[in-house]
TrEMBL record:
Example GO molecular function: oxidoreductase activity
The protein's name in its UniProt record: Putative 2-hydroxycyclohexanecarboxyl-CoA dehydrogenase
Basic and acidic residues bias locations: 292-308
InterPro entries, per database record: KR_dom (IPR057326), NAD(P)-bd_dom_sf (IPR036291), Rhodanese-like_dom (IPR001763), Sc_DH/Rdtase_CS (IPR020904), SDR_fam (IPR002347)
Presence of the UniProt keyword Endoplasmic reticulum in the record: no
Domain Rhodanese residue range list: 10-59
Keywords on record: Membrane, Oxidoreductase, Transmembrane, Transmembrane helix
Length: 351
């Protein structure tokens, strides 16, 4: 039986699908789309978080459709997409955001656990994208937003399964984008690379560390990510967006001095991802933390005191055209030149 949040009025706003919508970035993005008057389909496994998200979407001015689904199940994802299309009449935007993670050294992760993270975090995006395309390609319009991370380019210790999945999404999305461009399709796919974000994930991921899992500082509020996602949904021609100065710095450093970054992360990466305190629970790898006996975690995690709600770099990324390509190229050129000089191979000096 449908709840009051599952009523959709045809013709009002865009029809938006968000996976992993029950908490964190997905929850914040759902509210940001709702504030624009969009109709929002909320996809996730849990019950409490979905109900809370639907209520907030309605109060923000949008319309909500709740669909409980495990993104690792391809048929269930197809069925969910069909439910959205039946309710809303179409799918205009699909945001892939659902993920699973484990905080542990690689040697302490079982094959089944690694497979599960990969199936949810990577194949969930593949299945979601396929389901979206099934409805978008016949209409020759629509935008798919892949929510990524700086970890799509730069792996860090203790998150091997998650980093591997994010790298895979990056390669998959680039391949798909080339195919759509070759076909002259008006369906767009873009990727939003996020920094560390203050979400509840650090209290519900499977954790085998001595301390409580935490994001690597600096930490941003989920609303920063949500604004970038909403912007990307309306400007899908851009191949990707970088959110947060830490994302930009990490990706540039990884392109220029990846070996140095390996050594830096080996020294600092373990401590930077832990706080003192006991683990919150067994994690949500196999069952949702907001299931029948769980609770609604909302969009924010426990790091509100240190998280920042604005990112000048994110504004620059969204308004890159206004800033002028020369500024961006000049800045990157300066960084690359400095890196090459440190290695004794300046392009200004012949060898």
């Amino acid at each position: 039986m449908r709840g009051p949040w599952e009523v959709a009025l045809p013709g009002r706003g865009r029809a938006v699908v968000i996976t992993g919508a029950s908490g964190g970035v997905g929850r914040a993005a759902a509210l940001a789309f709702a504030a624009r008057g969009d109709r929002v389909a909320l996809l996730a496994r849990g019950r409490e978080g979905l109900a809370g998200a639907a209520d907030e979407v309605q109060r923000a001015g949008g319309e909500a459709l709740v669909v409980s689904v495990d993104m690792a199940d391809a048929k269930a994802v197809d069925d969910a997409a069909q439910k959205v299309a039946d309710a809303f009449g179409r799918i205009d935007v699909w945001v892939n955001n659902a993920f699973a993670g484990i905080y542990a050294p690689f040697t302490e992760i079982t094959p089944d656990e690694f497979r599960r993270v990969t199936e949810v975090t990577y194949l969930g995006y593949v299945f979601g994208t396929r389901a979206a395309l099934r409805h978008m390609l016949p209409r020759d319009r629509g935008t798919i937003v892949q929510v990524g991370s700086a970890l799509a380019y730069r792996g860090i210790p203790l998150q091997s399964a998650y980093c591997g999945a994010k790298h895979a999404i990056q390669g998959f999305n680039e391949s798909l984008r080339c195919e759509l461009l070759r076909d002259g399709s008006r369906v767009r796919t873009t990727m939003v690379q996020l920094p560390a974000v203050n979400t509840p994930q650090f209290d519900w991921v499977l954790n085998r560390l001595p301390g409580r899992a935490r994001p690597v500082a600096p930490v941003y509020q989920p609303e920063v990510a949500a604004r970038a996602i909403v912007h990307a949904a309306g400007h899908g021609r851009r191949r990707e967006y970088w959110v947060g100065g830490s994302t930009a710095a990490t990706l540039i450093a990884n392109a220029v001095v990846p070996g140095l970054l390996d050594r830096y992360l080996a020294r600092t990466g373990f401590e930077a991802q832990q706080d003192e305190g006991e683990h919150a629970g067994p994690g949500n790898l196999w069952t949702p933390a907001d299931g029948p006996h769980g609770r609604d975690f909302g969009a924010h995690g426990r790091f509100d005191e240190e998280a920042v709600g604005r990112s000048p770099q994110e504004w620059v990324s969204r308004n890159r055209g206004r800033m002028g390509a020369g500024v961006l190229v000049g800045g990157l050129g300066a960084v690359l030149t400095a890196g090459l000089r440190r290695r004794g191979r300046s392009p200004l000096r012949r060898t």
